[in-house]
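User: Need the bound-state model for glycyl-adenosine-5'-phosphate:
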Amino acid sequence: MMYFITTINLVMEFIMVAKNMNDLVSLCKRRGFVFPSGEIYGGLKGTYDYGPLGVELKNNLKKAWWKAFIFDRDDFEGLDSAILGNKLIFKHSGHESTFTDPLVDCRECKQRMRADKLKTPGVCDFCGSKNLTEPRDFNLMMRVNVGPVVDENSYAYLRPETAQGIFVNFKNVLDSTSKKVPFGIAQIGKSFRNEITPGNFIFRVREFEQMEAEFFVKPGEDEKWHEYWIAERRKWWLKQGLSEENLKFEVHDKSDLAHYAKACTDIVYQFPHGLEELEGIANRTDFDLGSHTKDAENLGVKAKVLENKDSSSKLSYTDPYTKETYVPYVIEPSAGVDRGMLAILNEAYTEETLDNGDTRIVLKLKPHLAPVKVAVLPLAKNNEKLMETAEEIKNKIKMLGIGKVVLETSGNVGKAYRKHDEIGTPLCITIDFETLEKEPATVTIRDRDTMSQIRLPVSEVLNYVSNFFKYV
Ligand code: GAP
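Assistant: Bound-state model below.
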Protein backbone atom coordinates (compact mmCIF):
# COMPACT_ATOMS: atom_id res chain seq x y z
CA MET A 1 0.00 0.00 0.00
CA MET A 2 1.56 3.30 -1.03
CA TYR A 3 0.17 6.82 -1.11
CA PHE A 4 1.76 9.48 -3.30
CA ILE A 5 2.03 12.93 -1.86
CA THR A 6 1.81 15.93 -4.14
CA THR A 7 5.01 17.90 -4.20
CA ILE A 8 4.41 21.59 -3.82
CA ASN A 9 7.15 24.08 -4.59
CA LEU A 10 9.52 21.30 -5.43
CA VAL A 11 9.45 21.34 -9.20
CA MET A 12 12.78 22.42 -10.62
CA GLU A 13 13.01 25.17 -13.16
CA PHE A 14 16.33 24.04 -14.49
CA ILE A 15 19.32 22.10 -13.37
CA MET A 16 22.72 23.69 -13.18
CA VAL A 17 25.62 21.31 -13.17
CA ALA A 18 28.20 23.53 -11.54
CA LYS A 19 31.31 21.47 -11.34
CA ASN A 20 34.52 23.15 -10.57
CA MET A 21 37.14 22.01 -8.14
CA ASN A 22 36.37 24.80 -5.67
CA ASP A 23 32.75 23.67 -5.32
CA LEU A 24 33.88 20.14 -4.57
CA VAL A 25 36.66 21.14 -2.17
CA SER A 26 34.30 23.41 -0.30
CA LEU A 27 31.54 20.78 -0.03
CA CYS A 28 34.08 18.17 1.10
CA LYS A 29 35.38 20.41 3.88
CA ARG A 30 31.97 21.76 4.95
CA ARG A 31 30.30 18.39 5.21
CA GLY A 32 33.21 16.30 6.45
CA PHE A 33 34.31 14.33 3.39
CA VAL A 34 37.94 15.47 3.05
CA PHE A 35 40.21 17.70 5.14
CA PRO A 36 43.77 18.83 4.42
CA SER A 37 45.96 16.52 6.51
CA GLY A 38 47.27 17.91 9.81
CA GLU A 39 45.64 21.24 9.01
CA ILE A 40 46.15 22.72 12.48
CA TYR A 41 49.93 22.57 11.85
CA GLY A 42 49.72 23.99 8.35
CA GLY A 43 49.08 20.67 6.60
CA LEU A 44 51.45 18.45 4.66
CA LYS A 45 51.52 18.90 0.91
CA GLY A 46 50.03 16.01 -1.05
CA THR A 47 48.21 14.41 1.89
CA TYR A 48 44.57 14.52 2.90
CA ASP A 49 42.47 13.13 5.74
CA TYR A 50 39.10 11.58 5.03
CA GLY A 51 36.35 12.70 7.40
CA PRO A 52 33.27 10.87 8.68
CA LEU A 53 31.49 10.95 5.32
CA GLY A 54 34.62 10.60 3.19
CA VAL A 55 35.62 7.37 4.87
CA GLU A 56 32.12 5.95 4.27
CA LEU A 57 32.16 6.89 0.58
CA LYS A 58 35.67 5.51 0.16
CA ASN A 59 34.80 2.27 1.96
CA ASN A 60 31.66 1.87 -0.15
CA LEU A 61 33.67 2.33 -3.35
CA LYS A 62 36.26 -0.22 -2.20
CA LYS A 63 33.48 -2.63 -1.21
CA ALA A 64 31.96 -2.37 -4.70
CA TRP A 65 35.36 -3.08 -6.24
CA TRP A 66 36.03 -6.03 -3.90
CA LYS A 67 32.59 -7.45 -4.69
CA ALA A 68 33.26 -7.21 -8.44
CA PHE A 69 36.59 -9.06 -8.21
CA ILE A 70 36.41 -11.35 -5.21
CA PHE A 71 32.76 -12.15 -4.51
CA ASP A 72 31.20 -12.09 -7.97
CA ARG A 73 33.94 -14.10 -9.72
CA ASP A 74 35.38 -17.56 -9.22
CA ASP A 75 38.77 -16.83 -10.73
CA PHE A 76 40.10 -14.31 -8.18
CA GLU A 77 41.64 -14.42 -4.70
CA GLY A 78 42.24 -11.47 -2.38
CA LEU A 79 45.43 -10.35 -0.68
CA ASP A 80 46.58 -7.73 1.81
CA SER A 81 50.35 -7.48 1.58
CA ALA A 82 52.65 -5.28 3.65
CA ILE A 83 53.08 -1.61 2.83
CA LEU A 84 56.74 -1.72 3.87
CA GLY A 85 58.74 -3.54 1.23
CA ASN A 86 62.15 -5.21 1.27
CA LYS A 87 64.39 -3.09 -0.95
CA LEU A 88 65.15 -6.17 -3.05
CA ILE A 89 61.53 -6.23 -4.21
CA PHE A 90 61.97 -2.79 -5.69
CA LYS A 91 65.42 -3.47 -7.01
CA HIS A 92 64.18 -6.45 -9.03
CA SER A 93 60.86 -4.83 -9.99
CA GLY A 94 62.89 -2.12 -11.73
CA HIS A 95 61.54 0.67 -9.54
CA GLU A 96 64.93 1.59 -8.07
CA SER A 97 66.37 2.28 -11.47
CA THR A 98 63.40 3.43 -13.52
CA PHE A 99 60.55 4.72 -11.35
CA THR A 100 61.49 8.31 -11.98
CA ASP A 101 60.03 11.54 -13.25
CA PRO A 102 62.12 14.16 -15.07
CA LEU A 103 62.52 17.20 -12.83
CA VAL A 104 63.56 20.75 -13.67
CA ASP A 105 64.34 23.66 -11.34
CA CYS A 106 63.62 27.28 -12.16
CA ARG A 107 66.78 29.29 -11.49
CA GLU A 108 64.71 32.45 -11.04
CA CYS A 109 61.86 31.55 -8.67
CA LYS A 110 63.45 28.31 -7.33
CA GLN A 111 60.30 26.23 -8.01
CA ARG A 112 60.59 22.58 -8.98
CA MET A 113 58.44 21.06 -11.74
CA ARG A 114 58.00 17.96 -13.85
CA ALA A 115 59.68 18.63 -17.17
CA ASP A 116 57.12 16.51 -19.03
CA LYS A 117 54.11 18.36 -17.53
CA LEU A 118 55.13 21.98 -18.11
CA LYS A 119 52.24 24.03 -19.51
CA THR A 120 54.65 25.43 -22.15
CA PRO A 121 57.73 23.30 -22.79
CA GLY A 122 60.89 25.00 -21.48
CA VAL A 123 58.98 27.71 -19.59
CA CYS A 124 58.50 27.90 -15.82
CA ASP A 125 54.85 27.37 -14.83
CA PHE A 126 55.18 29.77 -11.91
CA CYS A 127 57.13 32.84 -13.14
CA GLY A 128 57.32 32.35 -16.91
CA SER A 129 61.12 32.31 -16.95
CA LYS A 130 62.98 30.18 -19.48
CA ASN A 131 65.93 29.90 -17.13
CA LEU A 132 65.35 26.24 -16.23
CA THR A 133 67.90 23.55 -15.36
CA GLU A 134 68.36 20.50 -17.57
CA PRO A 135 65.87 17.72 -16.66
CA ARG A 136 67.22 15.14 -14.23
CA ASP A 137 65.68 11.91 -13.03
CA PHE A 138 64.03 12.01 -9.64
CA ASN A 139 63.04 8.70 -8.00
CA LEU A 140 59.52 8.79 -6.62
CA MET A 141 59.89 6.04 -4.03
CA MET A 142 59.85 6.89 -0.34
CA ARG A 143 62.64 5.34 1.71
CA VAL A 144 62.13 4.68 5.42
CA ASN A 145 64.48 3.43 8.08
CA VAL A 146 63.45 0.10 9.61
CA GLY A 147 64.74 -1.22 12.94
CA PRO A 148 66.84 0.31 15.71
CA VAL A 149 70.06 0.67 13.71
CA VAL A 150 70.30 3.45 11.18
CA ASP A 151 72.88 2.75 8.50
CA GLU A 152 73.13 2.60 4.72
CA ASN A 153 71.39 -0.79 4.60
CA SER A 154 68.66 -0.37 7.17
CA TYR A 155 66.08 1.07 4.82
CA ALA A 156 62.96 -0.29 3.19
CA TYR A 157 60.52 1.35 0.81
CA LEU A 158 56.92 2.39 1.29
CA ARG A 159 55.47 0.62 -1.73
CA PRO A 160 54.81 2.86 -4.73
CA GLU A 161 52.20 0.38 -6.06
CA THR A 162 50.41 -2.52 -4.38
CA ALA A 163 51.16 -4.74 -7.38
CA GLN A 164 54.61 -5.89 -6.24
CA GLY A 165 53.11 -7.44 -3.09
CA ILE A 166 50.97 -9.58 -5.39
CA PHE A 167 53.87 -10.70 -7.61
CA VAL A 168 56.09 -11.74 -4.71
CA ASN A 169 53.16 -13.73 -3.24
CA PHE A 170 52.25 -15.39 -6.55
CA LYS A 171 53.57 -18.79 -5.47
CA ASN A 172 52.07 -18.56 -1.96
CA VAL A 173 48.61 -17.87 -3.33
CA LEU A 174 48.93 -20.46 -6.10
CA ASP A 175 50.07 -23.20 -3.71
CA SER A 176 47.54 -22.41 -1.01
CA THR A 177 44.50 -22.14 -3.30
CA SER A 178 45.26 -24.47 -6.24
CA LYS A 179 44.02 -21.83 -8.67
CA LYS A 180 44.41 -22.55 -12.37
CA VAL A 181 45.55 -20.07 -15.00
CA PRO A 182 43.83 -17.82 -15.97
CA PHE A 183 43.26 -16.46 -12.48
CA GLY A 184 43.78 -13.23 -10.63
CA ILE A 185 44.89 -11.79 -7.31
CA ALA A 186 43.37 -8.52 -6.17
CA GLN A 187 44.19 -6.13 -3.39
CA ILE A 188 43.34 -2.69 -2.12
CA GLY A 189 45.79 -0.63 -0.13
CA LYS A 190 47.92 2.43 0.38
CA SER A 191 50.73 3.41 -1.94
CA PHE A 192 53.22 6.24 -1.61
CA ARG A 193 54.96 8.38 -4.19
CA ASN A 194 57.09 11.42 -3.64
CA GLU A 195 55.28 13.30 -6.41
CA ILE A 196 57.18 16.38 -7.55
CA THR A 197 54.02 18.38 -8.04
CA PRO A 198 51.07 17.02 -6.08
CA GLY A 199 47.91 18.96 -6.76
CA ASN A 200 44.34 19.22 -7.96
CA PHE A 201 42.96 18.27 -4.55
CA ILE A 202 42.95 14.46 -4.08
CA PHE A 203 43.83 13.81 -7.73
CA ARG A 204 47.62 13.72 -7.36
CA VAL A 205 48.77 13.07 -3.82
CA ARG A 206 51.78 11.52 -2.13
CA GLU A 207 49.81 9.00 -0.09
CA PHE A 208 46.89 7.32 -1.86
CA GLU A 209 45.01 4.09 -2.20
CA GLN A 210 44.99 1.75 -5.13
CA MET A 211 42.63 -1.04 -6.14
CA GLU A 212 44.81 -3.37 -8.17
CA ALA A 213 44.13 -6.68 -9.83
CA GLU A 214 46.80 -8.84 -11.44
CA PHE A 215 45.29 -11.36 -13.82
CA PHE A 216 47.68 -14.18 -14.77
CA VAL A 217 47.21 -15.62 -18.24
CA LYS A 218 48.92 -17.96 -20.66
CA PRO A 219 51.39 -16.14 -22.95
CA GLY A 220 49.71 -15.66 -26.30
CA GLU A 221 46.30 -15.17 -24.70
CA ASP A 222 47.32 -11.84 -23.16
CA GLU A 223 45.99 -9.51 -25.86
CA LYS A 224 42.55 -11.09 -25.77
CA TRP A 225 42.42 -10.71 -21.97
CA HIS A 226 43.69 -7.15 -22.17
CA GLU A 227 40.71 -6.22 -24.36
CA TYR A 228 38.40 -8.09 -22.01
CA TRP A 229 39.56 -6.16 -18.95
CA ILE A 230 39.36 -2.78 -20.68
CA ALA A 231 35.69 -3.43 -21.42
CA GLU A 232 34.96 -4.86 -17.95
CA ARG A 233 36.49 -1.96 -16.14
CA ARG A 234 34.59 0.63 -18.15
CA LYS A 235 31.33 -1.16 -17.33
CA TRP A 236 32.23 -1.10 -13.65
CA TRP A 237 32.89 2.64 -13.58
CA LEU A 238 29.57 3.26 -15.33
CA LYS A 239 27.91 1.21 -12.60
CA GLN A 240 29.49 3.52 -10.02
CA GLY A 241 27.65 6.43 -11.61
CA LEU A 242 30.21 7.90 -14.02
CA SER A 243 28.62 8.98 -17.27
CA GLU A 244 29.51 7.72 -20.73
CA GLU A 245 30.37 11.20 -21.98
CA ASN A 246 32.90 11.79 -19.19
CA LEU A 247 34.75 8.49 -19.63
CA LYS A 248 37.22 7.94 -22.46
CA PHE A 249 40.01 5.57 -23.34
CA GLU A 250 43.57 6.65 -24.02
CA VAL A 251 45.94 4.17 -25.59
CA HIS A 252 49.58 4.77 -24.59
CA ASP A 253 52.18 5.31 -27.29
CA LYS A 254 55.01 2.79 -27.17
CA SER A 255 57.35 5.61 -26.04
CA ASP A 256 55.02 6.47 -23.15
CA LEU A 257 54.80 3.00 -21.58
CA ALA A 258 55.97 2.15 -18.04
CA HIS A 259 59.12 0.07 -17.90
CA TYR A 260 57.16 -3.17 -17.42
CA ALA A 261 54.41 -2.79 -20.01
CA LYS A 262 53.89 -4.01 -23.57
CA ALA A 263 50.63 -2.08 -23.91
CA CYS A 264 48.49 0.12 -21.72
CA THR A 265 45.07 1.70 -22.09
CA ASP A 266 44.00 4.30 -19.57
CA ILE A 267 40.43 4.95 -18.62
CA VAL A 268 40.46 8.72 -18.46
CA TYR A 269 37.81 10.89 -16.86
CA GLN A 270 36.76 14.48 -17.40
CA PHE A 271 37.86 15.78 -13.97
CA PRO A 272 37.16 19.44 -13.13
CA HIS A 273 40.79 20.24 -14.06
CA GLY A 274 40.84 18.23 -17.29
CA LEU A 275 40.70 14.83 -18.95
CA GLU A 276 43.05 12.69 -16.84
CA GLU A 277 43.85 9.11 -15.88
CA LEU A 278 41.47 7.35 -13.53
CA GLU A 279 42.65 3.79 -14.10
CA GLY A 280 45.38 2.15 -16.12
CA ILE A 281 44.91 -1.28 -17.71
CA ALA A 282 48.34 -2.62 -18.63
CA ASN A 283 49.65 -5.71 -20.32
CA ARG A 284 52.71 -6.27 -18.09
CA THR A 285 53.79 -9.41 -20.01
CA ASP A 286 55.93 -11.83 -17.96
CA PHE A 287 58.16 -8.97 -16.85
CA ASP A 288 57.14 -9.02 -13.17
CA LEU A 289 57.14 -12.74 -12.43
CA GLY A 290 60.15 -13.03 -14.75
CA SER A 291 62.03 -10.40 -12.75
CA HIS A 292 61.23 -11.88 -9.33
CA THR A 293 61.79 -15.52 -10.21
CA LYS A 294 64.98 -17.44 -9.87
CA ASP A 295 66.19 -19.29 -12.98
CA ALA A 296 64.40 -16.94 -15.39
CA GLU A 297 66.85 -18.03 -18.09
CA ASN A 298 65.54 -21.63 -17.91
CA LEU A 299 61.87 -20.74 -17.78
CA GLY A 300 61.56 -19.15 -21.23
CA VAL A 301 60.79 -15.66 -19.91
CA LYS A 302 60.10 -13.44 -22.90
CA ALA A 303 60.47 -9.99 -21.33
CA LYS A 304 63.93 -8.46 -20.98
CA VAL A 305 64.75 -9.11 -17.31
CA LEU A 306 67.91 -8.97 -15.26
CA GLU A 307 69.34 -12.07 -13.65
CA ASN A 308 67.94 -12.50 -10.12
CA LYS A 309 70.29 -14.16 -7.65
CA ASP A 310 68.33 -12.97 -4.60
CA SER A 311 65.01 -14.75 -5.14
CA SER A 312 64.47 -18.16 -3.55
CA SER A 313 61.40 -19.08 -5.59
CA LYS A 314 60.47 -20.20 -9.09
CA LEU A 315 57.47 -18.12 -10.12
CA SER A 316 56.25 -20.36 -12.90
CA TYR A 317 53.05 -22.30 -13.49
CA THR A 318 52.62 -25.88 -14.63
CA ASP A 319 49.39 -26.63 -16.45
CA PRO A 320 47.91 -29.68 -14.65
CA TYR A 321 46.50 -31.11 -17.89
CA THR A 322 49.20 -30.45 -20.50
CA LYS A 323 52.12 -30.39 -17.99
CA GLU A 324 53.44 -27.37 -19.83
CA THR A 325 55.46 -25.01 -17.60
CA TYR A 326 55.61 -21.28 -18.24
CA VAL A 327 55.82 -17.90 -16.55
CA PRO A 328 52.35 -16.34 -16.88
CA TYR A 329 51.72 -12.97 -18.49
CA VAL A 330 49.89 -10.38 -16.41
CA ILE A 331 47.00 -8.08 -17.28
CA GLU A 332 46.64 -5.39 -14.66
CA PRO A 333 43.62 -3.14 -14.09
CA SER A 334 44.91 -0.58 -11.58
CA ALA A 335 42.61 2.13 -10.24
CA GLY A 336 43.04 4.91 -7.69
CA VAL A 337 40.53 5.07 -4.85
CA ASP A 338 41.09 8.79 -4.30
CA ARG A 339 40.72 9.61 -7.99
CA GLY A 340 37.66 7.37 -8.13
CA MET A 341 36.14 9.27 -5.26
CA LEU A 342 36.89 12.62 -6.91
CA ALA A 343 35.32 11.48 -10.18
CA ILE A 344 32.25 10.15 -8.39
CA LEU A 345 31.82 13.36 -6.36
CA ASN A 346 32.25 15.43 -9.49
CA GLU A 347 29.66 13.39 -11.34
CA ALA A 348 27.19 13.44 -8.47
CA TYR A 349 27.48 17.14 -7.60
CA THR A 350 24.43 18.98 -8.90
CA GLU A 351 23.02 22.43 -8.28
CA GLU A 352 19.34 22.86 -8.98
CA THR A 353 17.20 25.97 -8.95
CA LEU A 354 13.80 25.21 -7.48
CA ASP A 355 10.67 26.98 -8.66
CA ASN A 356 10.62 29.08 -5.49
CA GLY A 357 14.04 30.44 -6.48
CA ASP A 358 16.02 28.48 -3.90
CA THR A 359 19.15 26.65 -4.93
CA ARG A 360 19.63 23.13 -3.76
CA ILE A 361 22.93 21.31 -3.89
CA VAL A 362 22.43 17.61 -4.20
CA LEU A 363 24.92 14.76 -4.45
CA LYS A 364 23.27 12.26 -6.75
CA LEU A 365 25.37 9.34 -5.62
CA LYS A 366 24.42 5.79 -6.49
CA PRO A 367 22.65 4.38 -3.39
CA HIS A 368 25.34 1.75 -2.72
CA LEU A 369 27.98 4.51 -2.52
CA ALA A 370 26.06 7.00 -0.37
CA PRO A 371 27.78 7.58 3.00
CA VAL A 372 24.44 7.76 4.83
CA LYS A 373 21.80 5.44 3.44
CA VAL A 374 18.74 6.58 5.35
CA ALA A 375 18.00 9.51 7.64
CA VAL A 376 15.04 9.14 9.97
CA LEU A 377 13.50 12.50 10.84
CA PRO A 378 11.10 12.93 13.77
CA LEU A 379 8.93 15.95 12.96
CA ALA A 380 8.98 17.30 16.53
CA LYS A 381 11.98 16.72 18.77
CA ASN A 382 10.10 17.58 21.96
CA ASN A 383 7.49 14.86 21.53
CA GLU A 384 8.59 11.77 23.42
CA LYS A 385 6.36 9.33 21.56
CA LEU A 386 7.47 10.65 18.18
CA MET A 387 11.14 10.40 19.17
CA GLU A 388 10.65 6.88 20.50
CA THR A 389 8.92 5.73 17.30
CA ALA A 390 11.64 7.32 15.16
CA GLU A 391 14.37 5.64 17.21
CA GLU A 392 12.60 2.28 16.87
CA ILE A 393 12.24 2.60 13.09
CA LYS A 394 15.87 3.71 12.76
CA ASN A 395 17.07 0.70 14.77
CA LYS A 396 15.01 -1.71 12.66
CA ILE A 397 16.44 -0.27 9.42
CA LYS A 398 19.95 -0.54 10.87
CA MET A 399 19.36 -4.27 11.33
CA LEU A 400 19.11 -4.61 7.53
CA GLY A 401 22.88 -4.10 7.38
CA ILE A 402 22.69 -1.65 4.48
CA GLY A 403 25.21 0.77 6.04
CA LYS A 404 24.91 3.97 8.01
CA VAL A 405 21.40 4.93 9.13
CA VAL A 406 20.96 8.04 11.26
CA LEU A 407 18.36 9.69 13.43
CA GLU A 408 18.40 13.31 12.28
CA THR A 409 17.43 15.62 15.07
CA SER A 410 19.16 18.84 14.04
CA GLY A 411 17.16 21.72 12.57
CA ASN A 412 13.69 21.61 11.06
CA VAL A 413 12.64 19.11 8.41
CA GLY A 414 13.36 21.50 5.52
CA LYS A 415 16.91 22.08 6.74
CA ALA A 416 17.41 18.38 7.35
CA TYR A 417 16.36 17.62 3.76
CA ARG A 418 18.85 20.21 2.45
CA LYS A 419 21.63 18.75 4.55
CA HIS A 420 20.93 15.19 3.43
CA ASP A 421 20.60 16.29 -0.21
CA GLU A 422 24.05 17.81 0.07
CA ILE A 423 25.65 14.69 1.51
CA GLY A 424 23.80 12.39 -0.88
CA THR A 425 21.46 10.51 1.50
CA PRO A 426 19.10 8.68 -0.87
CA LEU A 427 16.12 8.34 1.47
CA CYS A 428 14.71 10.48 4.26
CA ILE A 429 11.94 8.94 6.34
CA THR A 430 9.81 11.39 8.27
CA ILE A 431 7.88 10.38 11.35
CA ASP A 432 4.99 12.77 11.93
CA PHE A 433 1.80 12.92 13.95
CA GLU A 434 -0.09 10.80 11.42
CA THR A 435 2.39 8.06 12.22
CA LEU A 436 1.19 8.09 15.80
CA GLU A 437 -2.49 8.81 15.32
CA LYS A 438 -3.69 6.87 12.28
CA GLU A 439 -4.15 3.16 11.73
CA PRO A 440 -2.23 1.65 10.05
CA ALA A 441 0.73 3.77 11.16
CA THR A 442 2.43 5.36 8.17
CA VAL A 443 5.59 7.37 7.45
CA THR A 444 6.68 9.50 4.52
CA ILE A 445 9.67 8.48 2.44
CA ARG A 446 11.34 11.20 0.44
CA ASP A 447 13.49 10.43 -2.57
CA ARG A 448 16.66 12.57 -2.77
CA ASP A 449 16.78 12.97 -6.55
CA THR A 450 13.12 13.57 -7.41
CA MET A 451 12.16 15.02 -4.01
CA SER A 452 8.90 13.15 -4.39
CA GLN A 453 7.37 11.72 -1.24
CA ILE A 454 5.30 8.64 -0.67
CA ARG A 455 3.37 7.53 2.39
CA LEU A 456 3.94 3.99 3.37
CA PRO A 457 2.68 1.81 6.23
CA VAL A 458 5.44 1.26 8.78
CA SER A 459 5.08 -2.49 8.23
CA GLU A 460 6.28 -2.05 4.62
CA VAL A 461 9.25 0.21 5.30
CA LEU A 462 11.89 -2.49 5.78
CA ASN A 463 10.94 -4.22 2.57
CA TYR A 464 10.94 -0.94 0.65
CA VAL A 465 14.34 0.10 2.01
CA SER A 466 16.04 -3.24 1.43
CA ASN A 467 14.77 -3.37 -2.17
CA PHE A 468 15.89 0.20 -2.74
CA PHE A 469 19.47 -0.56 -1.68
CA LYS A 470 19.84 -3.84 -3.52
CA TYR A 471 23.09 -3.65 -5.50
CA VAL A 472 23.91 -6.41 -7.93
N1 GAP B 1 50.55 -0.89 -10.66
C1 GAP B 1 50.40 0.02 -11.74
C2 GAP B 1 50.37 1.40 -11.33
O1 GAP B 1 50.62 1.73 -10.18
P1 GAP B 1 49.86 3.81 -12.20
O2 GAP B 1 49.22 4.26 -13.49
O3 GAP B 1 51.12 4.45 -11.80
O4 GAP B 1 50.02 2.24 -12.34
C3 GAP B 1 47.55 3.33 -11.09
O5 GAP B 1 48.80 3.97 -11.03
C4 GAP B 1 46.45 4.25 -10.59
O6 GAP B 1 46.79 4.74 -9.28
C5 GAP B 1 46.26 5.52 -11.42
O7 GAP B 1 45.42 5.29 -12.53
C6 GAP B 1 45.66 6.48 -10.43
O8 GAP B 1 44.27 6.27 -10.33
C7 GAP B 1 46.30 6.06 -9.12
N2 GAP B 1 47.44 6.97 -8.80
C8 GAP B 1 48.69 6.89 -9.26
N3 GAP B 1 49.45 7.89 -8.75
C9 GAP B 1 48.63 8.62 -7.95
C10 GAP B 1 48.81 9.78 -7.15
N4 GAP B 1 49.99 10.37 -7.01
N5 GAP B 1 47.74 10.26 -6.48
C11 GAP B 1 46.53 9.66 -6.57
N6 GAP B 1 46.31 8.56 -7.31
C12 GAP B 1 47.34 8.04 -7.99
